[in-house]
Amino acid sequence: MEARHPRTLRYLERFEALLRARPAYRRYFRERDPWWSVFDVGAYTLAAWKVVWPSIARDLRAAVAGPLGARPVVPQHTVTLAAVESEEEAHYLCGVLNSGPPGAALRLFASAGGKGFAGPHVLRRVRVPRYRADDPLHRAIAALSRRAHAAAASGEGDPADVEPALLRAAAALWDVPAEDLERLVFTAGSGQPNRAAVR
Prior knowledge:
Elements (H helix, E strand, L loop, with lengths): L5 H8 L2 H5 L2 H6 L20 E6 L8 E3 L13 E6 L2 H11 L3 H9 L12 H4 L10 H19 L8 H11 L4 H10 L12
Helix pairs in contact: 4-7, 5-9, 7-8
């Protein structure tokens, strides 16, 4: 730190006592570890494009987070993030997660509203095919997500208007009859579809 980022180190030294006293530092690090060490931070934290969703929620509601100017968005610890390579891939993953079936599947094995309801484990539980730019279905899902985000940002239209198209796309993505997915989405929860939240 002294050699590569001396000004950052001078800034952090103003808070050394506080940083050494952190419970997470005392629990996860040893005295020989730098006192400015941070737990659970990696290259993914500073990725330009992310898909984010609350980890404590009643439904899985994802949104795309892109850079603000040249700076990446870094969500709070109560928000789950998945780093992706591009804006297009972010909209694809966001669209898939908001399509209904992932949220319905999550409600079948996790307590909605509980701590960690929608943590990173979501991506281990729901098989989301890796994004391929040459796949027309993947591009169509990304376009639906963009449409929902644009409606939310402008206040014109309802982001939820894309839900029927997202459900049909999810049926094609997982090769499941649309009526089966619709039944899953409506019976796994409170009778309401998983709304595409893009606020």
